[in-house]
Amino acid sequence: MEKKELIHEGKAKKLYATEDETMLIQLFKDDASAFNGAKKGTITGKGEINCTISSIFFEYLQSYHISNHYIKNLSPNEMLIKKLDIIPIEAVMRNVVTGSLEKRLGLQEGMMLEYPIFELYLKNDELGDPLINEHHAYALQVARPEEIRLMYRSTAKINAILKSFMERRGMVLVDFKLEFGRTDSGEIILADEISPDTCRFWDRKTHKKLDKDRFRFDMGGVEQAYREILERISSN
Ligand SMILES: Nc1ncnc2c1ncn2[C@@H]1O[C@H](COP(=O)(O)OP(=O)(O)OP(=O)(O)O)[C@@H](O)[C@H]1O
Ligand SMILES: [Mg+2]
Questions:
Q1: Is 13 in the pocket of ligand 1 (CB under 6 A)?
Q2: Could you give the 3-state DSSP secondary structure of residue 7?
Q3: 181 lines ligand 1 (CB under 6 A)
Q4: Which of 33, 42, 103, 206 is deepest in the core (most CB within 10 A)?
Q5: Do domains 3-82 and 85-219 have the same CATH topology?
Q6: Is 71 in a helix, a strand, or coil?
Q7: What is the pLDDT of residues 8-42, one digit of tens each?
Q8: Does domain 85-219 have CATH number 3.30.470.20?
Q9: pLDDT for 103-132, tens place per residue?
């Protein structure tokens, strides 16, 4: 598949057009950012690692009939994807308290949530991706009720599938962020990436953080942590 013009350069990825107008190439960069772009850096090898990790998760979810934009890998840091009309909402699911939830509600980090929490954030860099609820989404006309319902059902299913997948590999799926998009026929499918940039993973025994929090809080061993996730999910 021939790579054509660059159509989007984001903080972590680049999107290129292809000769097929229904498909894009998603290239994963080594660039890292946190706190809505306030902190920037690079993580050597991250592009290739995240591309591979995302491919593994997308393929695994397809085996459970969770439709997603992944088609195939083209190089270590590039995947061919279905072009979608992205719904400008981040769908977050949380199993364990940390991060902004810990601060917002004054909860103890590490507290297990008996009922996972589903959150929506508006994708708007100028506003710093604010927390919204479904009614804001309808009023802002970014998604319709049946679309939000579908995003919730899909995110809950993905949580159940990936939680046990990670558990079997000695890790806790703490929380994660997903993006969804519409196909030409109006079907809502999973898009973007699933990686240590967009999920929090802890070692089950030690609770060692194996995700972007190591970069956010200058904990060191960032690249090793990303590699460890790849190694652990690559083995059965
Ligand atoms: N299948 C798809 N079709 C079209 N766009 C997509 C698809 N999957 C992901 N995207 C979009 O591609 C971009 C990927 O770039 P990246 O994640 O680096 O952006 P970003 O800097 O994080 O900005 P954003 O806040 O938009 O995510 C995102 O805007 C994402 O919404
Ligand atoms: Mg992004």
A1: yes
A2: strand
A3: yes
A4: 33
A5: no
A6: strand
A7: 999 999 999 999 999 999 999 999 999 999 999 99
A8: yes
A9: 999 999 999 999 999 999 999 999 999 999
